[in-house]
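Researcher: Good morning. I'm working through a list of sequences from a screen, and I'd like to move beyond sequence-only analysis. For each chain I'm collecting a predicted structure so we can compare shapes side by side. This is the next one on the list. No need for commentary yet; just the structure.
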Amino acid sequence: MSANSEAKKVVVEEIKDKIKASKSVILAHYDRLTVKEVTDLRNRFRAANSEYKVYKNTLVRKAFDELGVSDFDADLNGATAFIFCPDETSGCSILAKAVKENPALADKIVPKSGYVSGAYVDAAGIGKLAAIPSREVLLAMLVGCLQSPIAKLAYAFKALADQKS
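Model: Good morning. Structure tokens for this chain:
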């Protein structure tokens, strides 16, 4: 085998390892991004323990095929960026927030699809995942819901105690 073939096998194994280690992988079409915009996106993803990478589509297709996933064959064409995320929603929300803050990115980077918790998600699903709040926000909402009835009960008891005094 040639050295180039061996190098490609190493990259395919690297991609497979990243897919297995990630809870979600976002595929996004990018076009005419400036170096500054790419650097900003990479920094945003890095801050969330995610990784923004560009690989050859054929190598990613081979990695998915070796993992038994063939849903991405139609999406693996053109300039594609891959975002490997440690959770299901952070990559989607970071991408949506970046586009919201910089509307010029709306045409430059567009989600194609994703691989979330072992399932294929289309572009519309990526948009829906972006709308889900982060884990911390969801936990705070849960605590607020659990705390509310207890607080109301305490206020009622205090009002009764104040009336008797």
